[in-house]
Amino acid sequence: MLLSIALVCVFGLLFHLYNSIVTKPRRLQSALRKQGIIGPQPKFLLGNTLEIKKSCEAAAKVASNGDIVDSHNCGATLLPFFGQWQRQYGEVFMFSLGNTQLVHVTQPEMVREITTCTSLDLGKPTYQATERGSLLGNGILTSNGPFWAHQRKILAPELYMEKVKGMINLVQDSALTLLSSWNIQIEAQGGTADIKIDADMRSFSGDVISKACFGSNFSKGEEIFFKLRALQEASSKRVLSTGIPGMRYIPTKNNRETWALEKEIKALILKIVKEKRITEAGSEKDLLQMVLEVATINSELMSQNAIDSFIVDNCKNIYLAGYETTAVAATWCLMLLAANPNWQQIIRDEVLQICKGQIPNADMIRQMKQLTMAINESLRLYPPVAVVSREALKK
């Protein structure tokens, strides 16, 4: 009897594996080919990951030669395989990461239709939740359906433009602190200085989002930011193994590092939450306070572990969505202005004309048309999020 049950379990597991590794991918590939969508031939278990790795290594070798870059097409350097496949298979093509099938789309009309679709049947990819689970959990950036709608209802009002305008004083304070530190470096080096701004811009955006959303300064959130960045790097190494079943459970060196960072970040966030509950009861509500209130309201319906996960996942989502992306976008914008001194002068003149020696406020910034153009062009050339994925959750 026990032997029969064991055999049934083994055959059931084998059937499940065969279906996920062979049958389902082939069925999806066949359906796409019938619609005229083709792509590179995937290899068993690995999909097209070897081709992707080879293409990236070749592009990195060319970039490391020190040649002067005369194009802003960063996608050709970072994601060279997309351009190669597009030329070979057409504007819309399919490829595979392990046993995960993807369709690559770049036409503005189709992208707009996908990103503006309001159906809950089109959502965040399950492979992305698997790949970034340790980084984002089941927060608003990875969740789907009613749970996503519930989280959005909580978080979205805190990020409306009127709310953001009310944060301008926090941005001003952080910006003045950053500029003061740069002035000190310049004076110390006799009036001119080379400043590597990457870390400074991350500190700046981290300081702003900590004050605006968590009521603390950057020094309190610095350790969380540092560990989140380490977790982000560790997670990125797992991308090419995303579609290989069970890889995320194997205790490889990278997986062990990821698990340890995930635990440390959870402990740090819950420590801030505990301090906030004790010291800031009755204070003005910020984003973390809203998350805590919702968790408290649902405490009878959720276990303590579920409540902790809800709080930690959304805190990580807020940190990453507002911290790294803002720093990256601002750094590229400053780089482009440095490379185009004529535009730098145009924007400087506009700022002097509108602000008349005052610190810019929300109304002044809205009047800066030239600055807005420069920011939009920077975002077009160097988007902080270059790839957006969606999955049809139903047929």
From TrEMBL:
Query: Where does this protein reside within or beyond the cell?
Result: Membrane
Q: What terms describe the molecular function in GO for this protein?
A: heme binding; iron ion binding; monooxygenase activity; oxidoreductase activity, acting on paired donors, with incorporation or reduction of molecular oxygen
Instruction: Cite a GO CC annotation.
Output: membrane
Superkingdom of this protein's organism? Eukaryota
UniProt keyword Transmembrane helix present:
yes
- Which InterPro entries does this entry report, sorted A to Z? Cyt_P450, Cyt_P450_E_grp-I, Cyt_P450_sf, Cytochrome_P450_Monooxygen
Gene3D superfamilies noted in UniProt: Cytochrome P450
The principal localisation class reads: membrane
Instruction: Kindly state which keywords UniProt assigns to this record, in alphabetical order.
Output: Heme, Iron, Membrane, Metal-binding, Monooxygenase, Oxidoreductase, Transmembrane, Transmembrane helix
UniProt xrefs under PANTHER family: CYTOCHROME P450 714C2, CYTOCHROME P450 FAMILY MEMBER
Family to which this protein belongs: Belongs to the cytochrome P450 family.
Q: What is this protein called?
A: Cytochrome P450
Give the organism the record lists: Anisodus tanguticus
